[in-house]
Design goal:
Order of helices and strands: HHHHHHHH
Structural class: mainly alpha
Radius of gyration: 24 Å
Number of helices: 8
Strand content: under 5%
Largest sheet: none
Length: 217
């Protein structure tokens, strides 16, 4: 019976699964660490640092993670507390951290996020209250808020489709090169086109996909 490593497809599958497992463990660990740090800073009433670590906890989030919901709830609460205390700048930072954290965790089929849309509403409202710019002198608060809301609703990069193509292309490229090294040469180091043809085409397709994703993402 052939070992797993003697089967090229199985070898690639094992490498991919191991890589995904390491990434998931790292993400989960970082999310817990950032959330714990945020709670500690909030307990010490160091809200600026707490906001920063809550944002990082969201950025390290996994789908359906309770850490994400906890960090989002904490940022919403901090924003409300700061605005009530008259610290509009701090409240704006909290809402922006919430919106930015959620934007950084988009997936290909994420769709709209009611939580992020709510944060954008608050950001637009708070920015509109600041009428220090001369260009805003003839606009009402409602008009300013509408303008900022429109800017916040615009599509942001990277594009999820091209970003996904970039990641898949890189995985295919690296996997095909590993396969080429294993199958394209015999024990004496002689190159065999018949065995190497498939991996070479796979590496070429992967590289092109990676380059296109890098260009358009």
């Amino acid at each position: 019976m052939k070992s797993v490593w003697a089967r090229p497809c199985a070898s690639v599958a094992v490498v991919v699964v191991a890589f995904c497992a390491v990434v998931l463990l790292r993400v989960a660990s970082e999310s817990r660490t950032e959330l714990a740090a945020a709670h500690a800073y909030r307990h010490d009433d160091r809200l600026a640092l707490a906001v920063e670590h809550y944002r990082r906890a969201i950025r390290w989030s996994l789908p359906l993670s309770t850490n994400t919901a906890e960090a989002v709830s904490a940022l919403e609460s901090i924003a409300g507390e700061l605005e009530t205390a008259g610290d509009v700048t701090g409240a704006l930072l909290a809402w922006r951290s919430l919106s930015g954290g959620l934007a950084a965790t988009r997936f290909l089929y994420s769709g709209s996020s009611p939580t992020r849309e709510n944060a954008s509403e608050h950001i637009a409202r708070l920015i509109a209250l600041d009428r220090s710019a001369a260009i805003d002198a003839n606009l009402t608060v409602e008009q300013l808020a509408a303008d900022h809301r429109r800017l916040l609703s615009e599509e942001i990069s990277p594009d999820p489709w091209w970003g996904t193509l970039l990641l898949l292309g890189m995985a295919l490229w690296v996997g095909a090169l590993v396969l080429l090294a294993r199958r394209g040469f015999d024990s004496a180091g002689r190159f065999h086109w018949a065995a190497a043809r498939g991996p070479i085409w796979g590496a070429l397709v992967g590289f092109v996909s990676f380059a296109l994703g890098l260009l358009f993402a």
